[in-house]
């Protein structure tokens, strides 16, 4: 019989900028903390390792050249020592881990995600099919972030009968007025996340890292903070308390899959 109730952890934390070694150490520390608090699963944000390179959305090619070089140097392989260390920590702490990372395959980078079982085995490994806009200047084509706007991609996951959906997002802040409202945190992480839960009638967790020292001028990707981790019930209700955008830590939530049946009883067969 499948387990229907458990405790989930959601990491809303600032990454270790351009320092993959420190990033892996922080990942393991958060895994250990979540396990010590009795959780069965901890989920991290989109490209948690090494971080989401927000300067792609604001700087010029010349300005970003050194950042891109450093980012590539800190990207990892799916079977490299960094992932092996995280898988070992997963096994030692008997916890499931959903990890977002920048995957390097030869000279190409991918926006990748991996689900690691409590025994340390890789249960799922995928790459974002089509990076969004300026992400394509760094990542190649490969359900991260704005893939939640693509109807056929969403239908594909629903058709597989999923009951818990882990959505990985990067950080971004509130609407500043210059960009379309659709790019701000209220539109992306909150509105789309809630709608996704209602459409499919299942539990949905979303993760976003936070930025404590971002430039607050100009782009929405430099508005400071940006963390917005949350869990939504199948009826669209947010069951975690709103967090400070600069909160650096873990949110916890009790999961009850029987809530899916209640939602489907009123919305769909």
UniProtKB/TrEMBL annotation:
SUPFAM superfamilies given in the database record:
Carbon-nitrogen hydrolase
List, alphabetically, the Gene3D superfamilies matched: Carbon-nitrogen hydrolase
Q: Which Pfam families match?
A: CN_hydrolase
By its UniProt entry, which InterPro entries does this protein fall under?
C-N_Hydrolase, C-N_Hydrolase_sf, Nitrilases_CHs
**Location of the CN hydrolase domain:** 6-257
Q: Which PROSITE patterns match?
A: CN_HYDROLASE
GO terms for MF: nitrilase activity
The source's superkingdom equals Eukaryota
Family the UniProt entry places it in? Belongs to the carbon-nitrogen hydrolase superfamily. Nitrilase family.
Spell out the PANTHER family in the cross-references. CN HYDROLASE DOMAIN-CONTAINING PROTEIN (PTHR46044:SF1), NITRILASE (PTHR46044)
How is this protein named in the record?
CN hydrolase domain-containing protein
**Species of provenance:** Penicillium cf. viridicatum
